[in-house]
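Backbone Fold Data
Goal — fold tokens
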Amino acid sequence: MDELIKYGPELAVGFLNNLKLSLVIAVFSLIVGTILAAMRVSPTPVLRAAGTAYVNVVRNTPLTLVLAFCYLGLSDTLGLIFSQEEPLTNSFWLAVLGMSAYTAAFVCESLRAGINTVPMGQAEAARAIGLTFFQSLRLIILPQATRSVIAPLGSVFIAMIKNTTVVAAAGYTVDVANVMKTTFDTTGVSIPIFLGIVAAFVALILPIGYFSGWLAKRMAVAR
């Protein structure tokens, strides 16, 4: 317990770094996932094929490989640099890029499942009054689809928060998992520190799960 108190501030900073990552990734993955879902249900064959290929490839690729590709491939080999002066800033955005690309595939599939629950008659009615595909998707289909997949999206974002513990593969080494490892190596004590970090994640994730479940029931679309 003494070690947990002594190294608590460092662990707290690492945990806050995970929270910062999670918030940024959630925003980007929701935007990209929505675009991918629109592509997957688009009447244009090329867009459907591109969206399907992206989702199938990324969903079946381990996250650590996606992050390693961003670090070793995009940054080291292709020269994608977000900041020359601050290596941690560069690795932060590489981690955001890789995790957003990965999580967006799961957001896309959740939204697509919600789109499939919207009755076809509503899309046909939208076309009958002159709305284009993207207008009907934005104004009619997506609002209903989103309300029907709040719980699955909550599960996706919970998994994303837990996945932020492997961002070292993208070179971001100030997350809580790496701080924890350094603390283990320094003190030789693991159980109290490990349990403290587990408790922190549980305290964060459980309310998200309960809230998404409550919101899903509150916002459910009556059929």
